[in-house]
Amino acid sequence: MPRSQRNDNFIDKTFTVVADILLKVLPTTRREKEAFTYYRDGMSAQAEGEYAEALQNYYEAMRLEVDAYDRSYILYNIGLIHTSNGEHAKALEYYYQALERNPYLPQALNNIAVIYHYRGEQAIESGNSRISNLLFDKAADYWKEAIRLAPTNYIEAQNWLKITNRLEEAI
Length: 171
What we know:
The protein has helices at about 10-25, 30-45, 50-65, 70-85, 90-100, 105-125, 130-150, 155-165. The protein contains 8 helices and no strands. The protein folds into 2 domains: about 1-85; about 105-170, no CATH class. By secondary structure, it is an all-alpha fold. Belongs to the Ycf3 family. Essential for the assembly of the photosystem I (PSI) complex. May act as a chaperone-like factor to guide the assembly of the PSI subunits. It is a peripheral membrane protein.
């Protein structure tokens, strides 16, 4: 039984019903509908912390989905799972792939920045200030782009950019 039919959560059930109605009335191919079903099931599994199941669904959605824009969100969600699992290098790969297909994905830019910032913090702890500054500069570049796309979001990043004197080139 597909995960979307097992949801106990009212919001998930409502989303599933609305999504099913939209799939029936919108002119989409069987393949597109199937890809969306896998994507939806992946999101549901991911929300419940069932990352292995979510990845299986996302990979199947990727196999079926041909639209670059839709694929960008699948790739982004795969990146989220790898980030949650502490697999930052893998996460970056998926975020970059998502941005190749959809450069207007500020959340991917933000997550890339967060990873570089985290790595910068690790470099400081290791006593490598030169590397940390390079990583912080890289984080700043990604945050600036995310903020350019979504100016009212990422307030903490905006504050960090101001505090570290990296904002002058932003926005």
